[in-house]
Amino acid sequence: MKKFIKLTTFLITVLFYNSAQSPDYGKYRSYLDYYLGSANSSNLEQGNLYFYIVSQFINFGSRDINLRTIEEYISYKIQFANFFFYIVFITGLYRVLKIYKFRKDNILLLLIVLNFFPPLVAIRIIFKPEILILGLITFCILFIEKYLKTKKLEYLVSFVLFYSLIISTKFTSASMVTILFFIIYRRKFLNDFSNIVLATLIITLFLFGILSYENYLINDIPFFEGQNPDFYNSKASSNFIYNVNFKDLVYKPYKDFHADSMIGIILLETFDDYFHLYWNNDESLFSKAQIPTNIKYVPYLGMSMTLIFYILIIYLSIVDKRYRPFYLSPFIGIFIMY
Q1: SS3 of residue 59 by DSSP
Q2: CA–CA separation, 241 vs 231, rounded Å?
Q3: Are the beta carbons of 296 and 280 closer than 8 angstroms?
Q4: pTM exceeds 0.70, yes or no
Q5: Which helix (H) or strand (E) holds 189?
Q6: Distance between CA 291 and CA 269 in Å, rounded?
Q7: Which of these, 337, 295, 325, 328, lies nearest to 309 by C-alpha position?
Q8: Are 40 and 146 in contact (CB under 8 A)?
Q9: For residue 26, what pLDDT is reported?
Q10: Phi, psi of 327 (to 5 degrees)
Q11: pLDDT tens across 173-218, in order?
């Protein structure tokens, strides 16, 4: 059943969404140009592993492609590669939850529900490395937990390798993951494994340096010197963080009416598509296939689900302190981004 649902959701997104029209595809296309032989460098700052693997998916079987269908072919291959990373993610998540002694039927139910979790669907259909990072995170946690149980260095080495790939891929994601790992494991390692922590840190920085240098040779831009378009350089006012447009949330829960409200954007984006980048994108068949009479209710449904989601994670973080960092981890992402 779980395999059928995974395959079904993959086929639906492939048929209804063009990943070659996804956000930032035009920007990241330079990675494909480099790996497919039409550019000498990417001229971007991010790590190359994700883009290299996607380019290999695209390259495999490309000889028989008609130029008239090249965009559909690239979209299919991006989502096929992302589906591969998604399988890596749920495999790692399954094994982590088994270590935490969750019941198998509850784990399988969770994995089924995740197939329809909007933020996860979104990163499965776009051309960005977050889906790779997500898979690496679950295995990092798996390796740490196995090391803590067995004290075998092979698990610590595996963690260092995977974590080095994460922090050399994307700066914002590296910051979020680092803070999460520090919150979860700071007491266990700082109190009992100080020498191990120091050695791990040195080796991680060494590997990060090697990977960053390799990325620099490909990108011609250092990891910390990303070039953003001018429209990314404007800053919101300080009240953006706490401002809420209650009246507009009721009567105008649509794009641009909440550009001055972080809370409003979170409410309308978490379980919906406030910025019209995914299923509300005009280039997406999801948008064209919606039932017109129900479209106006979608933002309210999304807001309701978002409120329930955040109320639940706050409640669970209070009643179940063992997993509090995991429950509250979305707030780490919000803090880093804003």
Answers
A1: helix
A2: 20
A3: no
A4: yes
A5: helix 171-192
A6: 20
A7: 328
A8: no
A9: 86
A10: -60, -40
A11: 999 999 999 999 988 877 777 788 888 889 999 999 999 999 988 8
**3 state SS for 20-32:** HHCCCHHHHHHHH
CB 241 within 8 A of CB 260: no
Is residue 309 within 8 Å of 334, Cβ to Cβ? no
Cα dist. 91→70, 80, 111, 138 in Å?
Answer: 32, 17, 10, 8
What is the dihedral sign for C-alpha 256, 259, 261, 263? positive
Cα of 177 vs its chain's centroid, Å: 11
Buried/exposed code over 238-263 (b: 16+ C-beta within 10 A; e: otherwise): eebeeeebeeebeeebebebbeebbe
Q: Which residues are CB-neighbours of 324 under 8 A, at least 6 positions away? A: 317
**Choice between 297 and 212, residue whose per-residue pLDDT is larger:** 212
Measured CA to CA in angstroms, residue 116 lies from 6, 263, 289, 333 at distances of 9, 23, 17, 21
Computed over every residue of the chain, the mean pLDDT equals 87
Angle at 57 between CA 160 and CA 136, to 5 degrees: 20
